[in-house]
Amino acid sequence: MTDTYARAANTWRNWAGNVTARPARVECPASVDELAGVLRRASEDGLTVKPVGTGHSFTATAATDGVHIRPDLLTGIRDIDRGAMTVTVEAGTPLKRLNAALAREGLSLTNMGDIMEQTVAGAISTGTHGTGRDSASVAAQIRALELVTADGTVLRCSPGEHPDVFASARIGLGALGVVTAVTFAVEPEFLLTAREEPMTFDRVTAEFEQLVAENEHFEFYWFPHTGNCNTKRNNRSAGAAAPPGRVSGWIEDELLSNGIFQVACSVGRAVPWTIPSLARISSRALSARTYTDIPYKVFTSPRRVRFVEMEYALPREAATEALRELKAMVERSPLRIGFPVEVRTAPADDITLSTASGRESVYIAVHLYRGTPHQAYFTAVERIMTGYDGRPHWGKIHTRDAGHLAGVYPGFGEFTALRDRLDPGRLFANSYLRRVLGD
Question: What percent helix, strand, coil does the chain show, rounded to 5?
Answer without folding.
Answer: 35, 25, 40
